[in-house]
Write a structure and sequence with these properties.
Blueprint (H helix, E strand, L loop, with lengths): L22 E7 L4 H13 L7 E7 L4 H10 L5 E7 L2 H16 L17 H4 L7 E4 L3 E3 L4 H4 L8 E5 L27 E8 L1 H6 L2 H12 L7 H8 L4 E3 L23 H8 L5 E3 L15 H8 L11 H37 L1
Parallel strand pairs: 1-2, 1-4, 2-3, 6-8
Antiparallel strand pairs: 4-7, 5-9, 6-7
Helix pairs in contact: 1-2, 3-7, 7-8
Protein backbone atom coordinates (compact mmCIF):
# COMPACT_ATOMS: atom_id res chain seq x y z
CA UNK A 1 0.00 0.00 0.00
CA UNK A 2 1.35 3.39 -0.97
CA UNK A 3 1.28 6.00 1.76
CA UNK A 4 2.12 9.55 0.78
CA UNK A 5 5.17 10.63 2.76
CA UNK A 6 3.74 13.97 3.76
CA UNK A 7 3.96 14.30 7.53
CA UNK A 8 4.97 17.08 9.82
CA UNK A 9 7.90 15.08 11.22
CA UNK A 10 9.08 14.08 7.76
CA UNK A 11 9.19 10.42 8.76
CA UNK A 12 8.62 7.52 6.40
CA UNK A 13 8.54 4.79 9.06
CA UNK A 14 5.05 3.82 10.18
CA UNK A 15 3.98 5.12 13.56
CA UNK A 16 2.80 1.61 14.46
CA UNK A 17 6.36 0.80 15.62
CA UNK A 18 6.15 2.87 18.80
CA UNK A 19 6.19 0.92 22.06
CA UNK A 20 2.72 1.85 23.33
CA UNK A 21 -0.20 1.01 21.08
CA UNK A 22 -1.55 4.13 19.34
CA UNK A 23 -5.22 4.74 18.72
CA UNK A 24 -5.82 4.26 15.00
CA UNK A 25 -8.20 6.96 13.77
CA UNK A 26 -9.45 7.23 10.20
CA UNK A 27 -11.07 10.23 8.51
CA UNK A 28 -11.97 10.79 4.87
CA UNK A 29 -12.30 14.16 3.18
CA UNK A 30 -12.13 16.14 -0.02
CA UNK A 31 -10.70 19.66 -0.11
CA UNK A 32 -13.95 21.28 1.05
CA UNK A 33 -13.69 19.38 4.32
CA UNK A 34 -9.99 20.09 4.99
CA UNK A 35 -10.65 22.67 7.69
CA UNK A 36 -13.46 20.71 9.43
CA UNK A 37 -11.23 17.61 9.42
CA UNK A 38 -8.47 19.54 11.18
CA UNK A 39 -10.98 20.78 13.76
CA UNK A 40 -12.36 17.29 14.40
CA UNK A 41 -8.95 15.73 15.00
CA UNK A 42 -7.65 18.69 17.00
CA UNK A 43 -10.64 18.37 19.34
CA UNK A 44 -9.90 14.66 19.79
CA UNK A 45 -6.26 15.39 20.64
CA UNK A 46 -7.21 18.15 23.08
CA UNK A 47 -9.27 15.68 25.11
CA UNK A 48 -6.96 12.66 24.91
CA UNK A 49 -5.22 11.41 28.04
CA UNK A 50 -1.50 12.15 28.05
CA UNK A 51 -0.36 8.52 27.84
CA UNK A 52 -2.21 7.93 24.56
CA UNK A 53 -1.27 8.81 21.01
CA UNK A 54 -3.22 8.90 17.75
CA UNK A 55 -2.14 7.43 14.45
CA UNK A 56 -4.33 9.32 12.00
CA UNK A 57 -5.00 8.00 8.51
CA UNK A 58 -6.63 10.51 6.19
CA UNK A 59 -8.26 9.00 3.11
CA UNK A 60 -7.47 11.73 0.59
CA UNK A 61 -10.41 12.60 -1.65
CA UNK A 62 -8.58 15.48 -3.31
CA UNK A 63 -7.21 17.69 -0.53
CA UNK A 64 -4.95 20.37 -1.99
CA UNK A 65 -1.32 20.50 -0.84
CA UNK A 66 -1.82 23.92 0.72
CA UNK A 67 -4.57 22.55 2.95
CA UNK A 68 -2.59 19.39 3.72
CA UNK A 69 0.16 21.60 5.08
CA UNK A 70 -2.36 23.49 7.22
CA UNK A 71 -3.73 20.20 8.55
CA UNK A 72 -0.23 19.00 9.40
CA UNK A 73 0.64 22.31 11.03
CA UNK A 74 -2.50 21.99 13.18
CA UNK A 75 -1.63 18.45 14.26
CA UNK A 76 2.11 18.94 14.78
CA UNK A 77 2.04 17.88 18.39
CA UNK A 78 3.69 14.99 20.21
CA UNK A 79 0.64 12.74 20.50
CA UNK A 80 -0.26 12.56 16.81
CA UNK A 81 1.21 11.12 13.62
CA UNK A 82 -0.51 11.74 10.30
CA UNK A 83 -0.48 9.69 7.12
CA UNK A 84 -2.40 10.55 3.94
CA UNK A 85 -3.55 7.53 1.97
CA UNK A 86 -5.06 7.54 -1.53
CA UNK A 87 -8.75 7.00 -2.13
CA UNK A 88 -9.81 3.48 -3.24
CA UNK A 89 -8.98 3.60 -6.94
CA UNK A 90 -9.76 -0.09 -7.46
CA UNK A 91 -13.40 0.63 -6.57
CA UNK A 92 -13.47 4.17 -7.99
CA UNK A 93 -15.34 3.68 -11.27
CA UNK A 94 -18.09 1.51 -9.85
CA UNK A 95 -18.45 3.78 -6.82
CA UNK A 96 -18.60 7.01 -8.83
CA UNK A 97 -21.26 5.69 -11.22
CA UNK A 98 -23.47 4.40 -8.41
CA UNK A 99 -22.96 7.54 -6.32
CA UNK A 100 -23.94 9.80 -9.25
CA UNK A 101 -27.14 7.83 -9.69
CA UNK A 102 -28.08 8.05 -5.98
CA UNK A 103 -27.95 11.87 -5.89
CA UNK A 104 -29.45 12.56 -9.35
CA UNK A 105 -31.98 9.88 -10.17
CA UNK A 106 -32.14 8.21 -6.74
CA UNK A 107 -33.31 9.39 -3.32
CA UNK A 108 -30.00 10.10 -1.57
CA UNK A 109 -29.48 13.37 0.28
CA UNK A 110 -27.65 15.77 -2.03
CA UNK A 111 -25.31 16.99 0.71
CA UNK A 112 -23.70 13.56 0.98
CA UNK A 113 -20.20 13.68 -0.48
CA UNK A 114 -18.65 10.75 -2.30
CA UNK A 115 -15.83 10.95 0.26
CA UNK A 116 -18.28 9.66 2.86
CA UNK A 117 -18.30 6.32 1.03
CA UNK A 118 -14.56 5.91 1.51
CA UNK A 119 -15.08 4.51 5.02
CA UNK A 120 -16.41 1.38 3.30
CA UNK A 121 -12.86 0.59 2.14
CA UNK A 122 -10.98 1.07 5.41
CA UNK A 123 -10.02 -2.61 5.67
CA UNK A 124 -8.47 -2.45 2.19
CA UNK A 125 -6.65 0.83 2.73
CA UNK A 126 -5.13 0.39 6.18
CA UNK A 127 -1.87 -1.56 6.66
CA UNK A 128 -2.19 -5.22 7.64
CA UNK A 129 -1.03 -4.47 11.20
CA UNK A 130 -4.21 -2.51 11.88
CA UNK A 131 -6.78 -4.84 13.46
CA UNK A 132 -9.23 -2.16 14.56
CA UNK A 133 -9.83 1.55 14.02
CA UNK A 134 -12.01 4.44 15.07
CA UNK A 135 -13.67 6.17 12.16
CA UNK A 136 -14.75 9.80 12.61
CA UNK A 137 -16.78 11.93 10.24
CA UNK A 138 -15.30 15.37 9.60
CA UNK A 139 -18.36 17.28 10.81
CA UNK A 140 -18.06 16.58 14.50
CA UNK A 141 -16.34 17.70 17.69
CA UNK A 142 -14.80 15.27 20.20
CA UNK A 143 -15.19 16.35 23.83
CA UNK A 144 -14.21 13.12 25.62
CA UNK A 145 -11.20 10.80 25.72
CA UNK A 146 -11.20 8.53 22.63
CA UNK A 147 -9.18 5.89 24.49
CA UNK A 148 -12.48 4.84 26.08
CA UNK A 149 -13.77 3.82 22.65
CA UNK A 150 -10.45 2.25 21.70
CA UNK A 151 -10.53 -0.14 24.65
CA UNK A 152 -13.97 -1.58 23.82
CA UNK A 153 -13.98 -5.35 23.31
CA UNK A 154 -15.38 -5.69 19.79
CA UNK A 155 -16.05 -9.41 20.09
CA UNK A 156 -17.61 -10.72 16.87
CA UNK A 157 -19.28 -7.42 16.03
CA UNK A 158 -18.42 -5.67 12.78
CA UNK A 159 -18.66 -2.27 14.47
CA UNK A 160 -19.73 -0.43 17.58
CA UNK A 161 -21.94 2.57 16.80
CA UNK A 162 -24.68 4.72 18.33
CA UNK A 163 -28.32 4.44 17.41
CA UNK A 164 -29.30 7.29 15.13
CA UNK A 165 -31.06 10.11 16.97
CA UNK A 166 -33.64 10.68 14.25
CA UNK A 167 -33.93 7.34 12.42
CA UNK A 168 -35.28 5.08 15.15
CA UNK A 169 -35.26 1.82 13.21
CA UNK A 170 -34.73 0.36 9.75
CA UNK A 171 -38.49 0.59 9.13
CA UNK A 172 -38.66 4.36 9.75
CA UNK A 173 -39.77 6.44 6.76
CA UNK A 174 -36.16 7.55 6.38
CA UNK A 175 -34.59 4.22 7.32
CA UNK A 176 -33.84 1.32 4.98
CA UNK A 177 -36.47 1.64 2.26
CA UNK A 178 -35.98 -1.99 1.21
CA UNK A 179 -35.68 -3.60 4.65
CA UNK A 180 -38.53 -6.03 3.91
CA UNK A 181 -36.89 -7.24 0.71
CA UNK A 182 -33.70 -7.78 2.69
CA UNK A 183 -35.55 -9.84 5.31
CA UNK A 184 -34.69 -7.46 8.17
CA UNK A 185 -37.05 -7.23 11.15
CA UNK A 186 -38.99 -3.95 11.28
CA UNK A 187 -37.85 -3.18 14.85
CA UNK A 188 -34.13 -3.56 14.09
CA UNK A 189 -32.26 -0.48 15.25
CA UNK A 190 -30.55 1.82 12.76
CA UNK A 191 -27.14 3.27 13.64
CA UNK A 192 -25.43 6.48 12.59
CA UNK A 193 -22.12 5.82 10.81
CA UNK A 194 -20.43 9.11 11.78
CA UNK A 195 -18.63 7.49 14.71
CA UNK A 196 -17.58 3.86 14.34
CA UNK A 197 -15.29 1.55 16.27
CA UNK A 198 -14.41 -0.84 13.46
CA UNK A 199 -13.36 -4.47 13.63
CA UNK A 200 -10.90 -4.06 10.74
CA UNK A 201 -9.72 -7.65 10.98
CA UNK A 202 -13.28 -8.95 10.55
CA UNK A 203 -14.01 -6.52 7.71
CA UNK A 204 -10.88 -7.67 5.93
CA UNK A 205 -11.58 -11.38 6.42
CA UNK A 206 -15.18 -11.10 5.27
CA UNK A 207 -14.50 -8.77 2.33
CA UNK A 208 -16.79 -5.99 3.50
CA UNK A 209 -15.50 -3.53 0.89
CA UNK A 210 -16.48 -5.75 -2.05
CA UNK A 211 -19.80 -6.64 -0.42
CA UNK A 212 -20.55 -2.95 0.14
CA UNK A 213 -19.97 -2.05 -3.49
CA UNK A 214 -22.07 -5.01 -4.61
CA UNK A 215 -24.90 -3.92 -2.32
CA UNK A 216 -24.69 -0.33 -3.58
CA UNK A 217 -24.84 -1.38 -7.22
CA UNK A 218 -27.89 -3.57 -6.64
CA UNK A 219 -29.77 -1.21 -4.31
CA UNK A 220 -28.77 2.30 -5.38
CA UNK A 221 -32.37 3.38 -6.00
CA UNK A 222 -33.14 2.78 -2.30
CA UNK A 223 -30.29 4.91 -0.90
CA UNK A 224 -31.14 7.84 1.39
CA UNK A 225 -28.04 8.17 3.58
CA UNK A 226 -25.57 6.47 1.27
CA UNK A 227 -22.83 4.47 2.98
CA UNK A 228 -24.77 4.57 6.25
CA UNK A 229 -27.65 2.65 4.65
CA UNK A 230 -25.19 0.12 3.25
CA UNK A 231 -23.54 -0.57 6.60
CA UNK A 232 -26.90 -0.92 8.36
CA UNK A 233 -28.06 -3.40 5.73
CA UNK A 234 -24.87 -5.46 5.91
CA UNK A 235 -24.43 -5.46 9.70
CA UNK A 236 -27.99 -5.98 10.97
CA UNK A 237 -27.83 -7.80 14.29
CA UNK A 238 -24.04 -7.81 14.21
CA UNK A 239 -23.13 -4.42 15.65
CA UNK A 240 -22.58 -3.30 19.22
CA UNK A 241 -24.33 -0.26 20.63
CA UNK A 242 -22.47 2.79 21.93
CA UNK A 243 -23.84 5.23 24.46
CA UNK A 244 -25.52 7.89 22.24
CA UNK A 245 -23.43 10.56 23.95
CA UNK A 246 -20.63 9.34 21.64
CA UNK A 247 -22.59 10.58 18.62
CA UNK A 248 -24.94 13.30 19.85
CA UNK A 249 -26.79 15.74 17.59
CA UNK A 250 -28.88 18.83 18.16
CA UNK A 251 -31.91 16.92 16.90
CA UNK A 252 -32.37 15.63 20.42
CA UNK A 253 -33.91 19.06 21.19
CA UNK A 254 -36.68 18.40 18.68
CA UNK A 255 -38.25 15.83 21.00
CA UNK A 256 -40.63 17.25 23.62
CA UNK A 257 -39.93 14.35 26.01
CA UNK A 258 -37.98 11.14 26.32
CA UNK A 259 -41.11 9.14 25.42
CA UNK A 260 -41.02 10.52 21.88
CA UNK A 261 -37.32 9.86 21.51
CA UNK A 262 -35.71 6.47 20.80
CA UNK A 263 -33.98 6.53 24.19
CA UNK A 264 -34.69 5.57 27.77
CA UNK A 265 -35.36 8.44 30.19
CA UNK A 266 -31.90 8.61 31.77
CA UNK A 267 -30.20 8.51 28.35
CA UNK A 268 -32.46 11.24 27.03
CA UNK A 269 -31.76 13.38 30.10
CA UNK A 270 -28.00 13.06 29.59
CA UNK A 271 -28.38 14.32 26.04
CA UNK A 272 -30.90 17.07 26.68
CA UNK A 273 -28.62 18.49 29.38
CA UNK A 274 -25.70 18.68 26.92
CA UNK A 275 -23.71 15.83 28.44
CA UNK A 276 -22.08 15.13 25.09
CA UNK A 277 -18.94 13.10 24.39
CA UNK A 278 -19.06 13.86 20.66
CA UNK A 279 -21.16 16.55 18.96
CA UNK A 280 -22.13 15.63 15.42
CA UNK A 281 -23.29 18.40 13.06
CA UNK A 282 -25.56 16.30 10.86
CA UNK A 283 -27.63 17.56 7.88
CA UNK A 284 -26.44 19.94 5.19
CA UNK A 285 -26.16 22.94 7.52
CA UNK A 286 -22.75 23.08 9.19
CA UNK A 287 -20.96 25.75 11.24
CA UNK A 288 -18.82 26.54 8.19
CA UNK A 289 -21.71 27.08 5.75
CA UNK A 290 -24.54 28.43 7.91
CA UNK A 291 -24.84 30.98 10.73
CA UNK A 292 -27.86 29.24 12.24
CA UNK A 293 -26.42 25.99 13.61
CA UNK A 294 -27.06 24.87 17.21
CA UNK A 295 -23.95 24.20 19.31
CA UNK A 296 -21.69 25.90 16.76
CA UNK A 297 -19.75 27.62 19.56
CA UNK A 298 -18.12 24.25 20.33
CA UNK A 299 -16.87 24.04 16.75
CA UNK A 300 -15.35 27.52 16.79
CA UNK A 301 -13.69 26.83 20.15
CA UNK A 302 -11.58 24.20 18.40
CA UNK A 303 -11.21 26.14 15.16
CA UNK A 304 -9.09 28.54 17.19
CA UNK A 305 -6.73 25.68 18.04
CA UNK A 306 -6.00 25.08 14.34
CA UNK A 307 -4.13 26.92 11.61
CA UNK A 308 -7.55 28.35 10.65
CA UNK A 309 -7.69 30.18 13.99
CA UNK A 310 -10.05 33.17 13.93
CA UNK A 311 -12.07 31.90 10.97
CA UNK A 312 -15.83 32.47 11.16
CA UNK A 313 -18.71 32.10 8.72
CA UNK A 314 -19.78 35.72 8.25
CA UNK A 315 -22.81 37.48 6.77
CA UNK A 316 -20.80 38.32 3.65
CA UNK A 317 -19.71 34.73 3.15
CA UNK A 318 -23.33 33.64 3.49
CA UNK A 319 -24.43 36.24 0.92
CA UNK A 320 -21.70 35.15 -1.50
CA UNK A 321 -22.67 31.50 -1.01
CA UNK A 322 -26.31 32.29 -1.91
CA UNK A 323 -25.28 34.25 -5.00
CA UNK A 324 -23.03 31.41 -6.20
CA UNK A 325 -25.84 28.91 -5.63
CA UNK A 326 -28.33 31.02 -7.61
CA UNK A 327 -25.82 31.55 -10.42
CA UNK A 328 -25.10 27.82 -10.72
CA UNK A 329 -28.80 27.02 -10.64
CA UNK A 330 -29.46 29.54 -13.43
CA UNK A 331 -26.62 28.09 -15.52
CA UNK A 332 -28.03 24.60 -14.97
CA UNK A 333 -31.50 25.70 -16.15
CA UNK A 334 -30.06 27.42 -19.23
CA UNK A 335 -28.04 24.31 -20.14
CA UNK A 336 -31.09 22.10 -19.72
CA UNK A 337 -33.17 24.36 -22.01
CA UNK A 338 -30.44 24.44 -24.64
CA UNK A 339 -30.15 20.65 -24.55
CA UNK A 340 -33.92 20.34 -24.94
CA UNK A 341 -33.87 22.68 -27.96
CA UNK A 342 -31.03 20.74 -29.56
CA UNK A 343 -32.86 17.46 -28.98
CA UNK A 344 -36.06 18.93 -30.47
CA UNK A 345 -34.18 20.06 -33.59
CA UNK A 346 -32.56 16.66 -34.01
CA UNK A 347 -35.91 14.91 -33.66
CA UNK A 348 -37.48 17.30 -36.17
CA UNK A 349 -34.67 16.65 -38.65
CA UNK A 350 -35.08 12.90 -38.28
CA UNK A 351 -38.84 13.15 -38.91
CA UNK A 352 -38.25 15.19 -42.06
Amino acid sequence: MHIENLSYKGKEEPFLKIESEPIVVVCAADDKYAMPLAVTVRSALANLKKNWKILLFIIDGGIKKRNKRRILKTLSIDNCEVQFIPKPDNFAKSLEEAYRYTVTEGQAKNYISIAQYYRLFIAELLPDQAKKAIYLDCDLIVKEDLSQLWQIDLGENYVFAAQDTWVHSVSAHNGLLNYQELGIASDAKYFNSGVLVINVEKWRAEKVSARAIDYLNHNKEHMIYGDQDILNALFTGQWGELDPRWNATSRIYEYSSWKESPYQEHVYNNLIHNDFYIIHFISGEKPWNSRDVPLKEHFFHYVDMTSWSGWRFTFWQELWQKLVYKFRKAVSIIKARMNNRVSARINKTILL
